[in-house]
Specification:
The complex is a heterodimer of chains A (900) and B (113). Chain A contains 29 helices and 24 strands. With 900 residues, chain A is α+β, with helices and mostly antiparallel strands. In chain A, a hairpin with a 5-residue loop joins strand 4 and strand 5. In chain A, strands 13, 14, 15, 16, 17, 18, 19, 20, 21, 22, 23 and 24 form a twelve-stranded mixed beta sheet that branches. Chain A has a six-stranded mixed barrel with strand order 4-5-10-7-9-8. In chain A, strands 1, 2, 3, 11 and 12 form a five-stranded antiparallel beta sheet that branches. The radius of gyration of chain A is 39 Å and the shape is elongated. Chain A has five domains: 78 residues, no CATH class; 188 residues, no CATH class; 188 residues, no CATH class; 173 residues, no CATH class; 187 residues, no CATH class. Chain A starts with a helix and ends with a helix. Chain B has 113 residues and is α+β, with helices and mostly antiparallel strands. Chain B has one domain: Arc Repressor Mutant, subunit A (Orthogonal Bundle), CATH 1.10.10.10. In chain B, strands 1-3-2 form a three-stranded antiparallel beta sheet. In chain B, helix 1 packs across helix 4. The chains are: A alpha+beta (900), B alpha+beta (113).
């Protein structure tokens, strides 16, 4: 039986609601066509089912409906027109129309080069800054350490009194942990970075190296790229003359010599055999070479428990958590404390802590980086708000164009798509620009080598950073494009076509005002953050370190023990070197100290005061201890408060003497006189009593923001030191004396390398480099935000002035003066600013608390900063408002009334 | 926009094809579609979904006129015949197209024959 063609056609045309008689005709005609096609197909030899399918396939009902409706009732054509994409699905026109959108978008952007340029630059700055900072965060915080299963690596240390400070571990304690801990697969000990003097072929050089347990590389899970790692038997005194080089040193100093393994190097005057070279990706701090730790019997005497100079890296067994390991280590530590009351007096704040290696490596930059990332995120939001504002203004001037397109049948979806395509173009351009800026930004950051940022070499724009950038660009499209697109597409056709360019919906003006208010609020938060950092930094630099860093040249000299085995040889070297430097023209005084204040490194110890007993639950007196050469206090301009300075007579043959600083004097002799009292610094088994001969002013050693800590000084001539920092006060620029000073030391020993030649001012500057960098970056972001917010205020006001030209004209025609008009516009601007400022102050109040630990000497809610910043912002906003306001006063009432 | 030009050319030429087919005698819709397909060796194909609406529009403009005719032994069908308006339009379009082809030929050596 033939299909009921009429029924089929009628069902499909029902939606058209044709007049009944017309419908009958059309249905009959179309049914006939289908039937004819069906019969032809049957005649062609197809089965009934195949023929029916073919006939039906020849009909595109949707198209028919649409075409018929156009033919039958043209007035309704647009209403019934299916959404564009339904038609476009035919024949792949969809892609074509996207290209069309892109072409059109590009034309629109080119027609408005000013807008395009500003928008692209604004967004590129935002995206670039964000990508650069994200790359830093990625490289430093997110990317796993370049060791095998880095999540299982932990750092074991003894916690000092202050949080986030580590105390080292003594060799016997290390062995206890190694023998007793079940949580770890591997435990390896390493020393604080040690200097190795490389001599022999080429310029003598001081390299940063480290003595490590034989299983150091195994624990980290990285094998040498060339040669081998350490053998267990090499981790013993006299058998440890082997060395593994870093890839960097191997390339830099040895020209990537493939035959380096087996070669002998002179390090610290002794011969070491190169046994391996690490791969390029392997890094441990700034180390360039490693040699076995080789603990000897002298590290395991009864007194050794208090001699703490090791750090422990351990690898957790699979499925052992950090918490489990911590619990076990704490138990063992408690036992060690019980068994060794001499080394760990009761009441001391001894805590063993296990933390992830990553946390130890990254340290306290996390908060700084996250603060900066947050700040730069704000900058991008402000940038987006600004571009959205610009687009809104532009959308207003395009209202006619949009209305015309809508009346020609473009659907709302289509209009939004077109406008989003334009933002997509903008965002792509900005993304490209941002990528360039990010690359430059990172290069700049690396050149600045900020503040010993950990893992600095690992910072690159990698795939993750690129996807971050892409995400930002897309976010920017949505943020900048969606609001204007939605607004514009809501256009009431008739209204727009009638009123011309004049009217703008109240809604649009509200959106623009809202955007400006939030811009002002966000930039205020940034300004407050930056303001706090500036205040904090100023406070920091105003701290008196206890010495005068200007006009002081410093350099570090570390003598090799093999060449200078006896203390008298060492003393003789330093005495000659200092005499030669003192003789240089332009040098007024010289001195030397074991560790420069603020220069990093620390040596402190417990000591005994003659005639005083420490109670069973009382901590032993404790102090920083430094050897110095006479002339040091004078050179550093550290004031002598009582008694006398060391002289050349305070030598090995003279009486044992010491000097202390004010902090220590007040701590242990409050109100009394320490001069003539005697101390035992306990670095020998037999007590060596030293008489205090002088008291000097207090000195900041650890950092400008650290507490003053008591200091004990004793003469270099009564010690056995190999490494000293020489200081020279100069009458000219200290750096002009560098080569002369080097020459003076070469004259004493031509093979002796010199390290860290810098001015004392540089030493201090390095110490505050991190807060300074944070301040500078945050400041730069805040200034950028301020400028963007000012542009925002300016943009909204000048647009509003254009919109209100007629109103202003009328006001002036009925007698308003220029002042009134000025007030009118400025009041509008200041209202927005005040709203934003209020919001911003509230947000700052909450947000700045997060950066509390970054601040020094200023509260996170410092009222002065808050007020000053709000005033600054208002002032800038006022200036931004004045420009359009002045233009408003120039309005000619006659022209304005004719204004369409 | 090439797309638009394409559309215009197609619509204009389709109208001309229909007019030409009903010039010598009235034809029904299915016949028109078949003839276009056959005579162009399948190069030109007519979608019924556009053919009938186009016929109705041409009818409205007075170019053609449709009428139900019953022939002996056959079902009644709607035949379209050429109207004077249509004749005029056909002649005009023929002229335009032949001028166009002549121009194309002069420029690009295309011989439509």
């Amino acid at each position: 039986m033939n299909p009921n063609w009429k029924q089929i056609v009628r069902e499909h045309l029902a939606a058209l609601r044709l007049p009944p008689e017309r419908e009958i005709e059309i249905v009959e005609e179309l049914a006939l066509h289908l039937e004819a096609a069906y019969e032809d197909a049957l005649a062609g030899g197809l089965s009934a089912a195949e023929a029916e399918a073919r006939a039906l396939r020849s009909y595109d009902w949707r198209l028919l409906e649409c075409e018929l409706s156009r033919a039958e009732h043209p007035w309704a054509a647009r209403a019934l027109q299916p959404p564009l994409e339904l038609i476009e699905r035919k024949g792949g026109i969809r892609m074509e129309s996207l290209l069309q959108d892109l072409r059109f978008g590009a034309r629109m952007l080119l027609r408005n080069p000013g807008f395009t340029l500003i928008a692209v630059i604004t967004l590129a700055l935002g995206i670039g800054a964000n990508t650069a900072l994200f790359s830093v965060v990625n490289g430093v915080l997110l990317r796993p350490l370049a060791y095998r299963d880095p999540d299982r690596l932990v750092w074991l240390s003894h916690k000092a009194a202050k949080p986030n400070q580590n105390a080292a571990i003594s060799p016997p304690t290390f062995v206890d942990y190694r023998n007793q801990c079940q949580s770890f697969e591997n435990l390896t000990a390493l020393m604080y970075g040690t200097a190795f003097n490389l001599t022999g072929d080429g310029e003598p050089e001081r390299l940063q190296g480290r003595r490590v347990s034989a299983n150091f590389f195994d624990t980290l899970g990285v094998a040498p790229a060339l040669g081998r790692g350490f053998l267990a038997e090499e981790d013993a005194p006299e058998r440890n003359r082997v060395v593994v080089l870093s890839h960097g040193l191997w390339r830099r100093r040895f020209g990537a010599d493939q035959n380096i393994v087996g070669r002998a190097l002179r390090l610290n005057g002794q011969s070491f055999t190169v046994i391996g070279v690490m791969p390029a990706a392997f890094r441990w701090q700034a180390d360039e070479l490693w040699s076995p730790l080789a603990l000897g019997p002298e590290n395991f005497t009864p007194r050794s428990r208090g001699s703490e100079f090791l750090w422990i890296v351990a690898r957790l067994k699979p499925r052992v958590t950090l918490q489990q390991a911590q619990a076990e280590v704490s138990g063992i530590a408690a036992q060690i404390v019980r068994q060794n009351p001499d080394a760990y007096p009761a009441g001391g704040d001894f805590i063993a802590q296990v933390k992830s290696l990553r946390e130890e490596v990254v340290g306290d930059v996390r908060l700084t980086l996250l603060t900066l990332l947050g700040a730069v995120g704000f900058v991008l939001l402000i940038a987006c708000a600004n571009v959205a504002n610009l687009s809104l203004a532009r959308a207003s001037s395009r209202r006619k164009e949009i209305a015309v397109r809508a009346s020609l049948g473009a659907s709302r979806f289509r209009l939004i798509r077109q406008m989003l395509t334009e933002s997509l173009l903008l965002a792509s351009l900005s993304g490209l620009g941002g990528l360039l800026l990010a690359g430059w930004g990172i290069d700049l950051l690396l050149t600045l080598n900020p503040a010993n940022l950990p893992r600095l070499q690992e910072i690159t724009v990698d795939a993750r950073a690129l996807s971050f950038l892409l995400g930002l660009a897309l976010l920017a499209v949505l943020l900048c494009g969606l609001a204007p697109a939605l607004q514009a597409s809501k256009t009431d056709l008739q209204e727009t076509l009638k009123e011309g360019d004049r009217g703008a919906g109240a809604g649009r003006q509200r959106t623009r005002s809202l955007l400006v208010v939030s811009e002002v609020a966000m930039s205020l938060v940034l300004l407050v953050g930056a303001g706090l950092m500036v205040r904090s930094f100023l406070r920091l630099t105003q701290v008196n370190p206890g010495f005068a860093p200007d006009h002081v040249l410093t350099m570090q000299v570390a003598l090799p023990a093999s060449k200078y085995p006896e203390p008298p040889q060492r003393r003789a070297f330093f005495q000659q070197a200092l005499e030669r430097i003192r003789a240089l023209p332009g040098v007024s005084s010289v001195g030397a100290i074991e560790l420069l204040p603020l220069g990093g490194g620390a040596r402190s110890a417990t000591f005994a005061i003659e005639g005083r007993q420490t109670g069973p639950n009382e901590a032993q007196p404790h102090s920083d201890i430094r050897a110095i050469a006479p002339g040091y206090f004078q050179t550093m301009k550290i004031p002598l408060l009582e008694g006398r300075d060391f002289t050349e007579q305070d030598n090995a043959d003279g009486r044992n003497v010491a000097m202390i600083d004010e902090t220590l004097a007040q701590l242990y002799w409050p109100g009394g006189d320490p001069i003539g009292k005697r101390l035992n610094l306990q670095f020998a088994d037999k007590p060596v009593w030293r008489e205090i001969v002088g008291v000097v002013g207090r000195i900041k050693h650890k950092g400008l923001d650290a507490e003053y800590k008591g200091q004990v000084f004793y003469p270099l001539a009564q010690g056995r030191h190999l490494g000293m920092c020489l200081v020279a006060r100069t009458t000219t620029d200290p750096l002009s004396l560098v080569s002369a000073a080097r020459g003076a030391i070469r004259a004493v020993d031509p093979e002796q390398p010199i390290d860290r030649v810098m001015t004392m001012e540089q030493v201090v500057a390095d110490k505050v480099a991190q807060p300074r960098l944070t301040m500078l970056l945050l400041g730069a972001f805040a200034v950028l935000a301020l400028v963007l917010a000012a542009v925002g205020v300016y943009g909204v006001l000048s647009y509003s002035v254009t919109q209100r030209t007629r109103e202003i004209g009328i006001r002036m025609a009925i007698g308003a003066g220029q002042r009134d008009v000025l007030k009118l516009v400025v009041r509008h601007g200041m209202l927005l600013t005040l709203l934003g400022a209020l919001l911003g102050l509230t947000a700052s109040f909450a947000l700045t608390r997060l950066m509390r630990t970054l601040l020094f000497g200023v509260s996170a809610n410092d009222p002065l900063t808050f007020i000053a910043v709000a005033l600054l912002l208002s002032l800038v906003a006022l200036l931004a408002a004045l420009v359009p306001a002045r233009r408003a006063t120039k309005v000619d009432p006659l022209t304005a009334l004719r204004h369409d | 926009m090439p797309n638009l030009l394409d559309k215009e050319v197609k619509r204009g030429s389709t109208e001309m094809l229909i007019l030409a087919l009903v010039e010598d005698r009235p034809r029904h819709g299915y016949e028109i579609a078949k003839l276009i397909e056959e005579r162009s060796d399948g190069v030109l194909q007519f979608h019924p979904a556009s053919l009938y609406p186009l016929l109705y529009r041409m009818e409205k403009r007075g170019l053609i006129k449709g009428a139900w005719i019953e022939k002996a032994g056959q079902r009644r069908r709607r035949f379209y015949k050429l109207m004077p308006e249509g004749k005029k339009a056909l002649n005009e379009q023929r002229q335009t197209w032949s001028d166009f082809f002549a121009a194309l030929d002069r420029v690009a050596k295309i011989n439509p024959a």
